[in-house]
Amino acid sequence: MCQFCTQHGEGKKWYENMANYTAEVFHQVNSEQNLVRFLRGFVKSLRDDVATASRWQRRFPRIYRFIAYPLLSRTMQKTHFGQVVPLEDVEAILSQVEHIVRLPCVCRKVTLGAEKRYCFGVGMDLTPILAQAPDFAAFEHWSRERAISFIRQLDQEGKTHSVWTFNTPFIGAICNCDQDCMADHPGGDAHHVESGVRGRNRPARLHRLQPLPHALLFCRHRF
């Protein structure tokens, strides 16, 4: 069992603890004002911080690998990181949360310069906050059934599913990543971790871990 399950799972995988999707947990670790500020600066952070990390990696590879990257990873585990999850767990999450909105993917906005809608806001009703962040304001309310059907389609296409925190352990988003995402992008970090999470039509993949501003982690639970 991983440290997040021990600390935040209450006997389950930590992302299956539905308390972690609630307003109560959000207000314990975050605030509306802080999240609005974070979301408004998200695209700039993706562009600038990832470029900075890449320069550090090229110029000082050993310092980056053994000092900078571990420090960044530990910091992000407290603020904003992703947990790769299998399709059946995503379906279980979507079947239990009260609010689901589909969102533009900011990663693909940076890497492709285009709007692609592969992300979901889930759990707590974040729409009053999203409405104040231009890159997220064009959200769409979706039903559970429609969201699950779409996730299954993305799984068939080989997308990797993950849940994301906005100050751990609060979970507010589900993303569906591929090579166009900052968390799994060819220009990203050189470290690779085998997820062991398989879609129905794909083998286990190797995922790039992006130090800033995205970091993907892999739970030690066997799926």
What series of H and E elements makes up the topology?
A: HHHHHEHEHEHEHEEEEE
- Anisotropy-based shape: globular
The fraction of residues in strands falls at 15-25%
Give the count of structural domains: 1
Structural class: alpha+beta
Mean pLDDT: 81
Major β-sheet profile: 7 strands, mixed
Helical residue percent band: 40-55%
Strand arrangement, major sheet:
4-2-3-6-5-1-9
Counting DSSP E segments of at least 2 residues, the number of strands comes to: 9
Total count of helical runs of at least 4 residues: 9
Computed CA radius of gyration, to the nearest angstrom: 16 Å
Uncertain residue segments:
185-214, 218-223
Distance between the termini: 12 Å
Key words describing this protein structure:
223 residues, alpha+beta, 7-stranded mixed beta sheet, two-stranded antiparallel sheet, globular
Produce the secondary structure layout.
Blueprint: H1 3-8, H2 23-29, H3 32-40, H4 42-59, H5 61-79, E1 82-84, H6 87-94, E2 99-103, H7 106-112, E3 119-123, H8 127-130, E4 140-141, H9 144-156, E5 160-165, E6 171-177, E7 192-194, E8 206-208, E9 216-217
Parallel strand pairs: 1-9
Antiparallel strand pairs: 1-5, 2-3, 2-4, 3-6, 5-6, 7-8
Helix pairs in contact: 4-5, 4-7, 6-9
